[in-house]
């Protein structure tokens, strides 16, 4: 009897082991399927059509210089022809719009509402897939990333999101190895992409790279391919072709020797250290690596780009083989520009093409430590006109406000109310029929009919006197139209960028604002259009006129001024309409941001809770402060408010909000 009972656990162990073995077997089979190519690398690359089209779309938005080369590709590919036609038709619409207005085309309320609704329904209330990092991630062990290294990590993340390769060209000693390892760690822990990654380095640094992986991300399985033929063969057969690794570190020489095996792998990233070896497109290494399949490529070099035409071409060909893939085409172009003057122009063009894919910081910039930014929420009430509009918006769909909405159309109805209330918090003139007229005049009424404009007016006066320069962000381009009229009225010189600004106009505006002794005091930007890649360190104050649903977008906006090269302390002022929907919006944003960072710190799987993404949350936001609007008719803000009191109160309330999350 006892024997029978004793035998049960043994069977259980056998069954458990069998289940584990089956599970292990299926895990390794699935992993092998992902890691090993079943077709020629060239065909595998052609099958990544979606990546190619997304990349082209993004590149054509950056600059027209890509046009010439992509057009050549379009001759062989109907889908690329179709893509180009679509982009051309958008550009044509944009051009005809820009010719309609005096300063530029101004959208109608209907046009912008449709855009804002599409944004809110599509992604506005959900966390984006991209999470930018604000502090050193916990998966990086044995130390923490410095601020500029976190910026480098975010730059690598943004390239990855746009299916782009890049060149990390920081000066030697700034931790390019650590930034690269932390990025591969981000892919593994946050994006759940565990390889295969190929890291090609000079022979002398093989062991250093292995040690660095073990030190910073010890759970990542990094193996080194080196040694005699037998040792290499064992590793290739038993580990590499069995997908029992995350990262393969090897030298240039080994890549050449073992090319036939290495090109069987579906590399997710190929990283090349000391990338000047790739600068000669005729070298054996260069030609072999070009045969390999990879989703993305990262070049690491400590030296700046040279003004050598062939070298620049080789880099572009390596980074963007699907655009700059045809050497004969380049030779033809090169022949057409064969005198010194023309070549100088071509070199400049190639530099400007490479710029979006290149990050270079030097020690002198990095060592001037960046002072922490000071963020303050400024809370302001509504004016009489705003209260009137806010009240009528609530009354217009009182059933929805009270939560009596059907299942199907309910969320869209609520999102529309949210959007309209947020417009009212910004400025009542965003509603057609609110502005007094005709005749329409640019006058003091532009300021005294909006609580936010009253504090902006007082704040800008104070900042102008102290010699500061200001970036003002809003999600709404029609709000920028109002701010443009205001700047004109007050005599403030300004620049502007929004979603309809062409690449050339963007560059011109940024250069104009950044030039020494520039007389431009204000820069008006829409939050999404003024995101990554824009450097405006000549400003020291950021005003977030309204908050983006996704707090990551606001962080990127602040970083236009708060980045390496900034010599002053940056102040960020976020405007919040008190006792109204906006208070709830920024509370959600603070909560979201905290969760985002916890995700990165704990390496947890995306996504975190979609805060504000259900009907109850939306109803709670809409109802917040509604009682006050109906009950207190005399509680309106006027131009008599004291800006110093507002600043003091803002500091206190900001501290309380930060303590809460």
Automatic annotation (TrEMBL):
<feature type="compositionally biased region" description="Acidic residues">
    <location>
        <begin position="111"/>
        <end position="123"/>
    </location>
</feature>
<keyword id="KW-0156">Chromatin regulator</keyword>
<keyword id="KW-0677">Repeat</keyword>
<protein>
    <recommendedName>
        <fullName>ISWI chromatin-remodeling complex ATPase ISW2</fullName>
    </recommendedName>
</protein>
<dbReference type="GO" id="GO:0045944">
    <property type="term" value="P:positive regulation of transcription by RNA polymerase II"/>
</dbReference>
<dbReference type="InterPro" id="IPR044754">
    <property type="entry name" value="Isw1/2_DEXHc"/>
</dbReference>
<feature type="compositionally biased region" description="Basic and acidic residues">
    <location>
        <begin position="88"/>
        <end position="102"/>
    </location>
</feature>
<keyword id="KW-0378">Hydrolase</keyword>
<keyword id="KW-0805">Transcription regulation</keyword>
<dbReference type="GO" id="GO:0034728">
    <property type="term" value="P:nucleosome organization"/>
</dbReference>
<keyword id="KW-0804">Transcription</keyword>
<dbReference type="Pfam" id="PF00271">
    <property type="entry name" value="Helicase_C"/>
</dbReference>
<dbReference type="GO" id="GO:0003677">
    <property type="term" value="F:DNA binding"/>
</dbReference>
<dbReference type="GO" id="GO:0006369">
    <property type="term" value="P:termination of RNA polymerase II transcription"/>
</dbReference>
<feature type="domain" description="Helicase ATP-binding">
    <location>
        <begin position="157"/>
        <end position="322"/>
    </location>
</feature>
<feature type="region of interest" description="Disordered">
    <location>
        <begin position="88"/>
        <end position="123"/>
    </location>
</feature>
<dbReference type="GO" id="GO:0004386">
    <property type="term" value="F:helicase activity"/>
</dbReference>
<dbReference type="GO" id="GO:0000785">
    <property type="term" value="C:chromatin"/>
</dbReference>
<dbReference type="InterPro" id="IPR027417">
    <property type="entry name" value="P-loop_NTPase"/>
</dbReference>
<dbReference type="GO" id="GO:0003682">
    <property type="term" value="F:chromatin binding"/>
</dbReference>
<keyword id="KW-0547">Nucleotide-binding</keyword>
<dbReference type="GO" id="GO:0005524">
    <property type="term" value="F:ATP binding"/>
</dbReference>
<keyword id="KW-0539">Nucleus</keyword>
<dbReference type="InterPro" id="IPR038718">
    <property type="entry name" value="SNF2-like_sf"/>
</dbReference>
<feature type="domain" description="Helicase C-terminal">
    <location>
        <begin position="455"/>
        <end position="606"/>
    </location>
</feature>
<dbReference type="InterPro" id="IPR001650">
    <property type="entry name" value="Helicase_C-like"/>
</dbReference>
<dbReference type="InterPro" id="IPR049730">
    <property type="entry name" value="SNF2/RAD54-like_C"/>
</dbReference>
<dbReference type="GO" id="GO:0005634">
    <property type="term" value="C:nucleus"/>
</dbReference>
<keyword id="KW-0347">Helicase</keyword>
<comment type="similarity">
    <text>Belongs to the SNF2/RAD54 helicase family. ISWI subfamily.</text>
</comment>
<dbReference type="GO" id="GO:0016887">
    <property type="term" value="F:ATP hydrolysis activity"/>
</dbReference>
<dbReference type="InterPro" id="IPR000330">
    <property type="entry name" value="SNF2_N"/>
</dbReference>
<dbReference type="Pfam" id="PF00176">
    <property type="entry name" value="SNF2-rel_dom"/>
</dbReference>
<keyword id="KW-0067">ATP-binding</keyword>
<dbReference type="GO" id="GO:0140658">
    <property type="term" value="F:ATP-dependent chromatin remodeler activity"/>
</dbReference>
<dbReference type="GO" id="GO:0042393">
    <property type="term" value="F:histone binding"/>
</dbReference>
<dbReference type="InterPro" id="IPR014001">
    <property type="entry name" value="Helicase_ATP-bd"/>
</dbReference>
């Amino acid at each position: 009897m006892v024997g029978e009972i004793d035998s049960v656990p043994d069977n259980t162990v056998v069954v458990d082991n069998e289940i584990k073995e089956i599970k292990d077997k299926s895990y390794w089979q699935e992993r092998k399927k992902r890691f090993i190519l079943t077709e020629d690398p060239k065909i595998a690359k052609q099958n990544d059509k979606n990546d190619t089209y997304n990349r082209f779309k993004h590149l054509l938005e950056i600059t027209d210089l890509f046009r010439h080369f992509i057009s050549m590709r379009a001759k062989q590919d109907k889908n690329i022809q179709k893509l180009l036609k679509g982009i051309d038709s958008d550009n044509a619409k944009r051009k005809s719009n820009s010719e309609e207005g005096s300063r530029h085309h101004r959208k109608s309320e209907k046009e912008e509402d449709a855009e804002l609704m599409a944004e809110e329904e599509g992604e506005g209330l959900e966390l984006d897939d991209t999470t930018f990092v604000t502090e050193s991630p916990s998966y990086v062990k044995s130390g923490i990333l410095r601020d500029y290294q976190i910026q480098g990590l975010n730059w690598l993340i943004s390239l990855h999101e746009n299916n782009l390769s890049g060149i990390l060209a920081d000066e030697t000693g700034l931790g390019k190895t650590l930034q690269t390892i932390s990025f591969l760690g981000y892919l593994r822990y946050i994006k759940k992409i565990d390889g295969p990654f190929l890291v090609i380095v000079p022979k002398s640094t093989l062991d250093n790279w292995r040690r660095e992986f073990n030190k910073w991300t010890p759970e990542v399985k990094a193996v080194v391919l080196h040694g005699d033929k037998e040792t290499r063969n064992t590793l290739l057969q038993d580990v590499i072709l069995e997908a029992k690794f995350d990262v393969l570190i090897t030298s240039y020489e080994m890549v050449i020797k073992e090319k036939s095996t290495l090109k069987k792998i579906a590399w997710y990233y190929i990283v090349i250290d000391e990338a000047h070896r790739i600068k000669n497109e005729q070298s054996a290494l260069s030609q072999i690596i070009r045969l390999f399949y990879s989703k993305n490529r990262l070049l690491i070099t400590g030296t700046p780009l040279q003004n050598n035409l062939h070298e620049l071409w080789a880099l572009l060909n390596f980074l963007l083989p699907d655009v700059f893939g045809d050497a004969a085409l380049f030779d033809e172009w090169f022949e057409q520009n064969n005198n010194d003057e023309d070549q100088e122009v071509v070199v400049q063009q190639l530099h400007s093409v490479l710029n979006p894919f290149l990050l270079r910081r030097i020690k002198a910039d990095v060592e001037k430590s960046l002072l922490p930014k000071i963020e303050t929420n400024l809370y302001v009430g509504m004016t009489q006109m705003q209260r009137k509009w806010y009240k009528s918006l609530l009354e217009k769909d009182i059933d929805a406000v009270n939560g009596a909405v059907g299942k199907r159309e309910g969320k869209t109805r609520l999102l529309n109310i949210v959007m309209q209330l947020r417009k009212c918090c910004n400025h009542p003139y965003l509603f057609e029929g609110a502005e007094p007229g005709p005749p329409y005049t640019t006058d003091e009424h532009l300021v005294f009919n909006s609580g936010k404009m009253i504090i902006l007016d007082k704040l800008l006066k104070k900042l102008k006197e102290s010699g500061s320069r200001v970036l003002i962000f809003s999600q709404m381009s029609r709000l920028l139209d109002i701010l443009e009229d205001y700047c004109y009225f007050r005599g403030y010189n300004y620049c502007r960028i929004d979603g309809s600004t062409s690449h050339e106009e963007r560059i011109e505006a940024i250069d104009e604002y950044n030039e020494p002794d520039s007389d431009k005091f204000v820069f008006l930007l829409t939050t999404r259009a003024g995101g990554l890649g824009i450097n405006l360190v000549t400003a020291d104050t950021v005003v977030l006129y309204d908050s983006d649903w996704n707090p990551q977008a606001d962080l990127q906006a602040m970083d236009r001024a708060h980045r390496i090269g900034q010599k002053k302390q940056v102040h960020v002022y976020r405007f919040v309409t008190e006792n109204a929907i906006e208070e709830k919006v920024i509370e959600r944003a603070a909560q979201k941001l905290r969760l985002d960072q916890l995700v990165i710190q704990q390496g947890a799987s995306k996504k975190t809770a979609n805060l504000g993404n259900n009907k109850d949350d939306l109803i709670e936001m809409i109802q917040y402060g509604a009682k006050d609007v109906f009950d207190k008719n005399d509680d309106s803000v006027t131009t008599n408010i004291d800006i110093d009191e507002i600043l003091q109160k803002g500091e206190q309330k900001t501290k309380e909000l930060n303590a809460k999350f």
